[in-house]
Amino acid sequence: MLASSAFARCLHGAGGRPAGQDKGAGNDDREFPGKGNGVVNKPETPETPEESNSDEKTNSGRHVGHKFKFDKEPRGAAGFLDDMDAQSPGKLQRIIAKSKWQGGKDELAKELEHDTDLGIDLDNEALLYQCESLASAAPTIAEAAGLEILSGVLPGDIDPASVQAFALSSRPSATRKVYLDFIGGSVTNTAWNVKYPNINIPAFSVDGDLSTFSTVDNGAIYAIWRAVSEDYAAFDVDITTIRPASFEGVHRIMIGGAGEWYSANPVGGVSYTGGFGNSYYNPGFVFAVNLGRNYPKYVWEAVSHELGHGLGLAHDTTNAGAYFEGQGDWAPIMGYSYLKAVTTFDKGEYTGATNMQDDFAVISNTLPLLPQDNNNMAAATPLTVAAATVPGSVTGTAYGIISQPDVPEFFSFTATAAGPATFSVAVVSPYGGSARSNLDVQLAVFDATGASLGALNPAGVDAIDGLGIANARLTLPAAGTYYVALTGAGAGDVKATGYSSYGSRGQFGLTVTIPTPMPSPSPSPSPSPAPAALPLARASIAMSKSCKSGQCTCSATVTVTASRSVSNLAIGGSWTTPSGTQIQTATISSRGQALFTASRQSTRTSCTFTLTTPPAGYAWDPASMMTGTLTNL
């Protein structure tokens, strides 16, 4: 396991300005020679690493920017480290201390042998990574299908069509800053320049136009910023695209180009590990052209990965290789995370893990973890209740961040009447079919005595509500005070098919529709005549299911017959599952059928569908089949 002041070169397998802003504009003259001219000058032809570097193969000399190998050393990494101790007393100890390596020399030797992408920068006395597995597998775009939230962007908001891409800040009040630099420019006076004196990074560009940032570029920048902000939402850090007045103490990730100055082979990203905020070991680089040709999903995964190295994180590895590719819908950020919908930090809980690094513990050595003060009923935060807009209910809301595993955030509300309450929890909205939320949210409701009224975690990652909860209904038995507890949940088997609650942390928005007394009806001056009897519609229910990867979807096909056509009329029903109750409506087709589908749930459970609302102008025939059940899915 690796921590600070090491170097990572990750071959992940794209960066942006407001429309009309010149790429390369707004930079100081020393670092950005193209300032003000509206065009980023192409960098000079980079120094190309030699194809066969004798130093690299014999483990002597400098290894800046090259893999560290032991091909010619019969005693392997352990022998090399022993020789370093003998020939340069104190050097290895300085490297270990500077890198905040979490083990001793023996552990370092084992990791050097196991992870062929880990090496040593002898000039700068730092550990380094070369993540060669990542860039080569990346497809092109055509192939790739409250109080705590201070950014001004609420979790359920979709990305706007037009954005100010260079005015984004996830936590403006935080003193620790991560600057996502999509503008580009030159790099001088850093550890990188020991080997590469002329480094020029082009601006990020999806459309290939390096002169201005288009609407497409700005949209991609916004998507990347929002995803990286969610990955680090549990920490007191500002992920920003606002260029700082000074880079002192700021961790900078430059995003753009293909990294030809660094390697003739495709490279996804490079970073000194543990160099967070250290101007000598900054910036880190993400070579977006090599990431599905600037595909936002791949770029944000690479940015969070490289930032993780800067904070001291090592690769999530297995016995089979240096990168764990995930399982089910999930992959770890510090592994190979491009192809999975849900990606989070982890602590090596999957089968075959060889890196048990506690990612959040390591990161919190540099970035403070946000507290969760409202973690019990006594400390619950009251919902903000809006004025009633319809009779019979009011709406309460709250926003926040789950920052710690299995620690609930409690909220309270007062219902002035018994009746159904509706609960929704929005998480960070997906982008292009990929989840950006790290939080798989679970909700529980309690009465004033602490008795549970039910728990909800109905949606899978492939459901329309992503990892959140939409319009789940629970009945409040009486007027009084109630409590809502939100926590991060896991899914599937952490050893083989899913993930635990450990990395399920992130932003949320809670909305509760609370029952209130209905106004009394006005008295009638005289009895009203009884309405004419409605014609009858008869219904039958056919139940079915489809299962995959330990999850099942229940379906109910309702066939409706009547004295005249009922096509295009709506009917209603409800699902009862271990996850809770779901109210649905469906339209009758020309064949007289309507389809209802429940959210995915685990096998070996049950689901029941109950028919409720008849077609408009009809009553249900008493002979109708009103309920269907599937058991032991």
TrEMBL record:
Residues 1-69 are annotated as: Disordered. It comes from the Eukaryota. This is Peptidase C-terminal archaeal/bacterial domain-containing protein. The lineage of its organism: Eukaryota, Viridiplantae, Chlorophyta, core chlorophytes, Chlorophyceae.
